[in-house]
Amino acid sequence: MLIYGALSGPLPKVGIVVAAALAAVAMLHRNARVQAVAMLGALVLAPVLLLGDIWHSPQLAVVHRHPLVAVVGALIALAAVAAAALLVAKHPEVLAGAVIVALPFRIPIESGGVTSNLLVPLYFVVAAGAVAFIVTALRGRAPPEPAASDGNARLPAPATPVPPRDGPVRWLEWLLAGYVVLYALQAAYSPKFTTALQQVVFFYVPFALAYCLLRRLDWTQRLTRACLALLAGLAVLFALVGFVEYETKTIFLNPKLIAANQLHAYFTVNSVFFDPNIFGRFLALVMILLASVILYARRQRTVLVTGAVLAILWVALLLTLSRSSIGALLVGLGALAAIRWRVGRAVFIAAGVVALAVAVIAITPTTFGLNQGLNGASSGRPGLVTGGLDLFKQRPLWGYGSGSFETEFAARHHEIGETTSASHTIPITIAAEQGLIGELVYLGLVLAALFVLFRRCRSDPARVAIAAAFLALLFHTLLYADFLEDPITWTLLAIGSALAARPAADSGGRGSQLAAGDRELQQQLA
């Protein structure tokens, strides 16, 4: 009870700052032992803070009534993490595939009186990877971050100093870490501290650790090819689930979506995702990655197989009715075209697509909900944006505090209800919650990420695909939500940074391999 009393007082506000700072140290420090200690601290502190927050919630009733059962369950979970960590320590490349597979799966869990869809499988994978790194680093056997790759080499075993990263990547990582710490600091004056704490514990800290682990991997041709194959396989599987939903008119998750489908003439699918827009985002990003294969690959069989997969995913994307996801797909495809060919040709094609879309909307406006007006067609987003801007005007410098948008917006717009957890436009949400301070860090982070991913990427098709996918995701966050709250963002940044930090040329002639874009992708993805 004494421990709980401390955790329910002012200490949680200090605790999330410490947890965020530990994650930042793990991201930024170049000494593997220091990184390991910081990871260990974050792994221990984050669940302790969460337990203090939900100690009296219904889902912990079994802990209060049957503490022995809870202890046994915890020991079984720790044993499973240890077993997975042993596997990762022996085969580091397994971590990449495990993260890719775990990215989409969410489990509904109640926390602080609110049911959230949490990435429990991903948390397990990150914990296993972190434990593997902590043990090897403290024993002096942690591998260095690779500075270059011959395309097939595995991670080196000897413990050597981590090679320096180039300036833009370092700036990106400083801004990532800075935003996480700033968010935790601005939670101190938030009227919705519980929301801010959950954001830090559920998203920022574990995703930052995942970034550290993925950033250290040697992203060889074999590894990138395997991860892309996993993503494509998952996307097809989820699309098939969506087809079953559409055919049977049955939704497996999201009671609100079930009710909405009963009220409308159209039927929206969400597959294993809670939100159709998140399902659409996932499909759009995978389609962009696969489109890069068609743009660069020369083998006819590769083009045909990839085209068939794209056709399946496109039908599933249409069934989500996610306009933001379709827009993100167009942005990503436009970026691919601009990099692969000339910008002028890409602009010309984009103009044709936009003209076609305008014509379709003009012919059937009711299909897109335009008969309801802009606010109705966009599910109230203009009203949310306007309300967010009003909040920013009232506290332009420091905002109302992390996680406060729902509370402050609802206090001024009682009729909106539960859809106010965000403005559905990430920059507006940040401006309202964190003010100009948070907005500047966010804008710096976005610019640094775009510079790192797009700088000299034309010669490396894998980097082209990641850069285009990130740009599409960024566009989607302007129309929906979840930027750093989405693990895909951190995954793209980690892989993109690892590839961008590799030297363009070295004495072994690897730079010439990277420069031969078409030949490399034929070997890498065909």
Can you describe this structure?
By secondary structure, this protein is mostly helical. It folds into two domains: about 1-180, no CATH class; about 220-375 and about 460-500 and about 510-525, no CATH class. The protein has helices at about 1-5, 10-30, 30-55, 60-65, 65-90, 95-100, 120-140, 165-185, 195-215, 220-250, 255-265, 275-295, 300-320, 325-340, 345-365, 375, 380-395, 405-410, 425-455, 460-480, 485-500, 510-515, 515-525, and strands at about 105-110, 115-120. The chain has a two-stranded antiparallel ribbon. A hairpin with a 2-residue loop joins strand 1 and strand 2 (about 115-120). Helix 8 (about 165-185) runs antiparallel to helix 19, helix 10 crosses helix 12 and helix 17 (about 380-395) crosses helix 18. The longest helix has 29 residues, at about 425-455.
Keywords for this entry:
23 helices; 2 domains; disordered C terminus; 2 strands; disordered N terminus; two-stranded antiparallel ribbon; 526 residues; globular; mainly alpha
